[in-house]
Write the structure tokens for this entry.
Amino acid sequence: MAMSSSAQQLSGLQMQKDWWRGGIIYQIYPRSFQDSNGDGVGDLRGIEHRLPYIASLGVDAIWISPFFTSPMLDFGYDVSDYCDIDPIFGTLADFDGMIANAHSLGIRVLIDLVISHSSNQHRWFKESRSSRTNPKSDWYVWAEPKPDGTAPSNWLSVFGGPAWQWDTGREQYYLHNFLVEQPDLNFHNPAVQDAVLNVARFWLDRGVDGFRLDTLNFYFHDEELRDNPVLPKELRTDICAPKVNPYNYQEHVYDRNRPEMIGFLNRFRSVLDEYDAAAVGEIGEGQIGLELIGQYTSGNDRMHMSYAFDMLAPDMPSAKDLAGIMNKVDQVVPDGWVCWAYSNHDCKRHASRWSLDLDAQRMMTTLMMCLRGSACIYQGEELGLTEADVAFEDLQDPYGITFWPEFKGRDGCRTPMVWEMSNTHAGFSQATRTWLPVSHDHMHNTVAEQENDPDALLHHYRRAIRFRHDHPVLMAGAQDNMHSQGDVLCFTRKHQGTEIFCAFNMSGTATDLAAPNGNWSAIAQDLGGLHPSPEGEILHLGPWQAYIAHRQT
């Protein structure tokens, strides 16, 4: 198959098929990244304008959240046309120009594919709901009511309330795991699978380098529509939904995480392999997330990688917790691949969620760059942005509006990127009013301010990313002897005769630990204040300090 012109421009990059293994992905939430036309909403031309900044970070790829045609009830995650651009973001020509520019700068482009559900305004759903006998009548999940007229099962929506909505035309219920306006596609129908695979081909033909697959474990449902069992109270987490949401009361064994998913992943991977493309899956699962990653990324015929929610948890994992997480990865993801993230567009920013000062943020960044797996950075975290306090009257997120005030939704992590303190709306937009207000607390964290401060967090991110790329052992090497000593996380990375030893003090209190045996040399000097010299057999680690050393074997 001939490469597109955009793909040809990528020829200057490392073209190995496994670039994603250990790669660093920068997530862009397009509504809030850069507005190019003054309407208060970010767009594709805005992304293109800021590509040199992204290239300066040294990341391998960008992941762009949805920009498809949409009623925007869930801000692009309710798609009404998978093969076109919503006018607020631009045109297909704008997309082509953006991706060509990205490739010329050595940046791969992943786009968010939302195919577990569509908008109720999609032509597929309009046809499906028109009758029980039309060609697309079973493209969505329709079901008869129980004899008493109630919903077919006890399944709940992530966004609150039942997951079933009555349709008066068909006199049936349809399934929606999220908003009522986001009906679930029926992946048990091979024609549906064919249709979404053709969507993937459409964008691959335009030169995208892969996808982030939204809500990957929600694609299939139990065809018998069995009720979910009750989840014991002590097992309930708020990783995937706030504690105030009764969605957490169920063990979701029938409305997600179904075994039929593997067959579809095989089909999707075959399409990706035709284009040498890659994909990262989102597995929204607080109980068995790592086990699912093991299933979904095992071998060479499923997902390349999936990101886990363990580091998106409300509470910061301790050294002991992280050692447990990583050792569990070794057990349940032996030949798969995990992508780690501290923040994204769906959860409170980690600087606020974990109450991290700048020293702690620096250390946690360096830690991510040393762990086995790939890494996702969410726009603005490299600036140390905290969760914005968005007033109720300014809220846009239906999730937050439903559960206010106990849960304020996702708008606090979605406020506009801050570029220049002296400019209108911090350089994000020239509009009178932006779709979400720029946070006043962010105004002294702008890119321009930090560019002029050699001690700024932004420069630390650049150094940490460069450090990872400079050491192939950190990209693809094995990870060994992961353990905790009090508040210190210790492990070794090994690859082709090189070993790197890492010790991270994950606390604000100085501590000592035994130095590793052998002829180790401290490295990472340019990361700044992260590598004390051992005194005899003792390492002295200051608060939020790390010791990183290497040797040849």
In short: Residues 190-205 form the longest helix (16 residues). Residues 263 and 302 are 9 Å apart (CA to CA). The longest strand covers residues 478-485.
